[in-house]
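TEACHING EXERCISE
Course module: macromolecular assemblies
Task: Read the component lines below, then compare them to the predicted structure of the full complex.
Student: A.B.
Group: 4
Components provided:
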Amino acid sequence: MIEIENLKKSYGELRALDGVSLKVEPGETYGLLGHNGAGKSTLAKILTGLLRADAGVVKICGIDAQVDPLEARAKLGYLPEESVLYEELSAREHLALFGDLRRVPRATADARAERLLGFLDLAEAADRPVASYSRGMRRKTAIGVALIGDPEVVLFDEPTGGLDPDGARRFAEVLSELKRRQRTVIIQSHILGLVQKRCDRIGILDHGQLKAQGTLEELRTTADMPSADLEDLFLHLTGREARDAKGLLD
Amino acid sequence: MSEDSPEGPPPAEGSPAPPSPDEQGPAEPAQGAALGAVLRLRLRILRRRYGSPFEAVLLLVVSLLASWLLGKAATKIPTELLSAALSAACLATLGVAIRAGWFLLYRSKELVLLLTQGVERRTLVAARLIELSLGATLLLIPLLAGVRGFHVATVGTEADPFLWLAGLLLGPALAATGLLAACALASLSSGPRRALTVLGVCSLFVLVGVSPGGLQALLLGPLAPGPVLLGLAAGEGRILAPLLIATLALAFSSLALAFRGHEARRDRAAPRTGDRVGSPWLARALRRLLPAPLGALAARDLTLVLRGAAPRAWLILFGLPFALALVPAFAADETIQPWQMRFAVLLLIGIMASASGFLFGVDLPLTRRGCMILERTQPLRGWQVHASRWGCAASYALLLTLGAAIIVARVPRPELALQAGHVLTSGVPLALLVTHHAITFGMRGEAEANPAEASGYPFTGGVVVLGFAFMLAFHWAAAVLYVMVWSGFTRRALVIWERSEVADQPEAAA
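Instructor-supplied answer key:
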């Protein structure tokens, strides 16, 4: 479970997060949307303990991430926006390393790593260095790294970036499995189709504030747009309009 | 990627192939500007990576040290031995140039950026030649400083300016040879290339072990760099003209040849899908033997080093044992007293331990700071990270300490040989505390996200080495002082590390 209350973070004059509050229950998949610079990455970094909030409370499975960041990290799996990996290590070595760092028993970690490599279609490339991987393969490896510890809370930042349709479909299956295991999942993505289809609730972050949150139907009611899709709702709730690029490159 | 150029359709059969943009001859002003832009880009990148004051201080210190050491030992070192060592050092620089040329021409990630932006391959080769020439010349500076020190000590006059001129020519010559060799290697597919590399290494061992005459001809022949450099320092300028001609010939050859078929070579140099990596046995053993997070972190560091993730690591790991050659040099001084010998060897152990600690505590974390987010989002205690790094650094430092003690035990003067036990009992705590300090210093710098702070390490590390080498030369129990003074510093550093923020991801990834 994730509980965030009145979270604030500023970089000098810039308010990256301005009183954000939200709660995500076990077994729930929460989609977090926002324009570039809306504060999504800052929120992710505070959740993972990479940044410290100026004010507010962040609890992961009841553990205050500001007070005891290491205990909170032990509950959290994180997929960063960029697939940051060691270029010289293979996918199998990554999974073994992070299994150890999360204190997963070796036999369990090895068996889980084999299943993840197989499911993510990395089995054949598992012993090649990451330097030789395509972007999609790197993404799959990073997804494996986030999941190897079977964390209770998982935070995915742009999870399908670089994945081919088959990879994206497999990721969707991973989400189903996480839901079945009652894991708490937050997805930050600009792929609105993924969020609309896979998330139970959606939060829209703009200029550091949570403008709206709820199910798709609740967002439609809030925006008073009963038949709108998520893209229209997102643009409406963040005060943006679709723009015409005609003549842009004249 | 196929060998066919992706930049356009292949020519129709029977029709003459249209010349590539490179072969048509470049549009001079545009490519001149491109060359300038590529060089400025590289300079900016290199300045960020290696342009800290630490590198400048390191180059200065190593150069001065080389000059001073060779000057002090001039009367004891036969000229032939020095010539051979200089030639070997130049050959090692050539090896580095080949490796760097290979990377810069065929494997660097920025090639995608440069070549798709209209930078012609001829321009690329020219930029790489200039960059490598500068790098090789910088690497040669300590060598030239050593030759100067030797010449001043043996002849009594300042070295001839020809020596420095030769350095300016030798750097580009090595760089151009490196590019040509990389180009030749990339012409081969991976199987023959590996076979050739293995053959080259085996030949070297055969030369060393079986045919000392062949090795002597290689290192001391009339065209070998060692004798040439010593001759130039003595004012023998006649070799300068052939050196100039050779440098120009090599530079023009590399410019004329290395850009041809670049695309096909780049394709051959790309890692094959079947290239698998096996975990080093030592890393596997560490993972099995140590508790999970410690073993995993140590195995990771070791694997990254062995797979070439940190170029300086190789230099430090393979360079440090050569410093043990100084121990017999100390003993060769007939005036040296046992306590002076003890102090000198302990100082050497301290310096080697400091370098080992610097590698695992400061340099490696700096090298992989782009991946720091991976480590910092794990539930790792500061002491676990500290212990894994300290374990690696201290193990290597202890091995070197043992080596130093063994060498001391075998020196001809019995009263000096008797110091071996003392060197071991004081050297072990010295190696442990110096590496401990380096790791703590590194974690503190990492927590404060200030890579420039690493440049302060030579000073603080030097104080620890000097102070404790001196105290431990009298009694090993002086190591207790370190625990008393630095335990608070360590505790604070670990807490700061655990609770520190990590730089923004794009910045970190850069």
